[in-house]
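Sequence and fold
=================
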Amino acid sequence: MIFFVTFHISLENLIETSPHSLSYQTIINLMFHSASLLHEDCCKIVLSDLNTDFSHLSPDISVQRYDIDSHHIMLNRLSTQIQFLRTMNQESNVVLLDSDMLLTAKLDPLLLQDFDIGLTIRTPAPVYQGKPMPINGGIFFIPASGKPAALRFLEQLYHIYQRSYGKDTQWWGDQYALLDILQCPDANDLQPSSLQLNDIKVRLLDCDQYNFSPDLESELDLTAFEGKFILHFKGPRKQFMQAYWDQFINPDRPTLPLETAYKELELKISLLQENRFEMKRQIQELKQANKALIIEKKHLAAVNAQLTAQSTSRKSYIQHLIQQLKKYLYSILPWPGS
């Protein structure tokens, strides 16, 4: 049996979402449904905070709740994953994964291999704020026999994260810590392989197969989806999950020749891209308008400061004249009784 475990808390108060975006409950349902189609006896679990609404989740998905601070979401995600593994009694395989993924192939053969924890590696490593991030923190593969060692790995990762990246608890810090724990000075030296970290066997798996994010900024190449085990619809790609599901995974989809299905999906995604590019254009216009308002505000502030300075200067000058006038009047007017 495989336990598929995702993490989600509602961030609607922190992040603005597009009106074209799928709801998080739809995304979670799609991900778990794709897992169930390939692994019939799997267990599906969401780790979350005390308040996020899951009323529209499929009834076969369970929710485990924790006291979580949304302002430290990535650090808290790692903490809840550790807590889950500590309290999990079953000797089963575990896949900790992001909710915006679709499974397209069975993972049983991978989880029968000899390792304690599997990570996915990107080559070349993307860089953010000057630090490379070769390991994507969105998915961990843990065979049943490797759970104790995998738990030690994640606990060590948490301590590195907390100690070294306390300013990046909202985003990115987990991926910085993942590079540190692998003890590799040059991120570009990392390649898909097996590593031994003390008593922990780590498998580095190619993101291109086990954590593939389609390039939807450029012209869509649907052949790039072939031969992938897991598709990761990160960031703005989330809106394409439903289209891909409908065309290629949904068991109730009409049977179409592959070429026809590709063309239909290409059309759907093209329309979604047009919506996204139009949104980006509108955002740029709003940014430009905001810049103009900021410039105008600065100009008005400068004018106001100049007028205030002039008013202060005139007030001082008038007070000076009044003092001079008083002195003059005192010098020419007779004193009482004189």
Notes: The first strand starts at residue 2 and ends at 7. The mean pLDDT is 84. The radius of gyration is 30 Å. The chain has eight helices and twelve strands.
